[in-house]
Amino acid sequence: MAEQLPRPEESSAKLSHSAPDYECVIIGTGVAGLYQLYRLRELGLRVTALESNEDVGGTWYRNRYPGCRFDSESYTYAYSFSEELLQEWNWSERFASQPETLAYLSFVADKFELRKDIQFGCRVVGATFDQANTTWVIRLEDGRELTTRFLITAIGALSTPTPPRFEGMDSFDGVSLHTYYWPAEGIALEGKRVAVIGTGSTGVQVISAIASTVAELTVFQRRPNWCAPLHNGPIDEAEMAEIKRSYDEIFRLCGESPSGFMHTPDPRKTMEVAPAERRAFWETLYGSPGFGIWLGNFRDTLMDPRANAELSAFVAEKIRARVKDPAIAAKLIPQDHGFGARRVPLETGYYEVYNRANVRLVDLQQTPIQRVTPAGIQTSGTEYEFDVIIYATGFDAVTGAFDRIDIVGEDGTRLLDKWRHGPRTFLGAQTTGFPNLFMIVGPQSGSAATNYPRGIENIVDWTTEFIRFLRVNGYTRVEPTQEAETSWVGHVAAFAQKTIMGKADSWFTGRNTNVDRSTEPRLLIYTGGAVHYRRFLTEQVDNGYPGFILARREAPNAVTV
Ligand code: NA7
Is the sign of the CA dihedral 454, 457, 460, 464 positive or negative? Predict the structure, then answer.
């Protein structure tokens, strides 16, 4: 049974109590929250996890749209912490679909009996740091409150959907929704006239999955992305047995790569290699499963514009070869950024979709959407009629989930205000002025820019060890030093300038047209790679956490150790 939260009437005097209800509260039970709960329970802490959904899974609980699946090899996405779990679970596909991933996370929750410490249907609306008691007071949507010494956010990097804001959206007579809200029971699309707006990873998956089912599919594309083939396939019994024997090696390879995948950059630079050999290498990568062409390419591909232009020309040629109509092919080739500067959507038959008679592409740069009408969508050129409009328009990435919770630190400062012109953190793990608030895959974390579970395990293990250290040494309060935070923000910015990702317009840099906010770039992720990032984390542990101010309640004068 889940531990019961205090009722509102019992908690009215919370601010004057000194013993918190919990030592740790985790918000969210996706891949990160589940593992954090497991690890803190192992430490024997009084811990609970609060989940707004009715079950575990986070991202994989919500994203149920057709075609939703991994772009990570399934077996590199598995938790690595339990050998027993690794040996018990069988993946059916090289890149598992959403139902299988959700089933996996449910299996994990069952196996480790995690649900008994999770409160479902609990949406956190606010959290205020109580200086007098060195605790966080958490407010839930239903009016209840609870207190905790440490608050840990595991609220997802892509969990705040951003539907567009076209005039007349509410007037549409048919079904319209953002992909994130796809209902569990599905939506009947057979024989329907369907619009998809957005051609990021989500749009590309949906479009490819439904093109052959619907009567008519109209894709509204503002800017194309560079996509590459996924090359999915089944994993049979013999291959799964081999994978199970190889997990040590698989995780070792992921651990050595900057991205947490089994794809490691080639040590050569593009122009050092003769054109014919270069081309052969790219052909191999284009024909291989997964992110190899993005993350396992020549080491300067994502840094040197000239090298990047060569690769982009190669991929453009592939697109032209796959799309029959040269005018449509031209529209599908990005002009404003090079290959890999934005997240590369992996696809199965995406380009061939545009060879179908029932599919049309509307270029919003030529004919922008003016409004949604009761019948469909009015662009500057035409009014299109639809039964269903699917918004695959992305997310207010990384900080969006924080903005939805009213987080108030010491001295009454709101996190929203502190981060108004971009987040500032130390290691993406903590932020000054908000003591005892730990973030799993927070802004500027190296774990946000990797194969998620690999990055998540690193930061969860580090957070767990830090909390163990604090408890063992009697510290009740922790926050980063100003110097550490300033230095980290500078380091993140410096790295962003070195890569083409850090300079491009995408969710990595927080430029989102569907949110009211300045268009100045927001440094949301650390692009220095997982290996570097882990080094920074380890340095803190090995040197007694020099980037943090630690204090005991009994001795209110803070000491830097
Ligand atoms: P993305 O990658 O942010 O893509 C969103 C898409 O929606 C992109 O093509 C946008 O065009 C388009 N968009 C957004 N707003 C509008 C409006 N107002 N009008 C027209 N088109 C719009 O989100 P995804 O959900 O596809 O993927 C997010 C991550 O999930 C992905 O990287 C994986 O890590 C999993 P734009 O390019 O901005 O012109």
Answer: negative
Q: Which three-class secondary structure state does DSSP give residue 41?
A: helix
pLDDT at 9 over 60: no
Token pair listed for 314 = 């190669």
Rounded average pLDDT over 294-310: 96
Please choose from 201, 259, 380, 441 the residue to mutate so as to test ligand 1's pocket, defined by most ligand atoms within 8 A of CB.
201
68: number of CA atoms within 13 Å, CB side? 20
Nearest atom (ligand 1) to Cα of 364: 20
Whole-number Å distance, alpha carbon 509 to ligand 1 midpoint, is 13
> Which pTM was predicted?
0.94
DSSP 112-161: TT-GGGEEET--EEEEEEETTTTEEEEEETTS-EEEEEEEEE---SS-SB
Cβ < 6 A, ligand 1 pocket: 158, 164, 197-203, 222-223, 343, 364, 392-395, 507, 513-514
Q: Average pLDDT in the 446-468 region?
A: 94
The class that CATH gives domain 8-56+114-160+397-551 is alpha beta
Domain ranges of the chain: 8-56+114-160+397-551
**Cα pseudo-dihedral 243, 453, 295, 322, rounded to 10:** 80
Q: Coil, strand, or helix at residue 52?
A: coil
The alpha carbon of 116 and the centre of ligand 1 are apart by a number of angstroms equal to 37
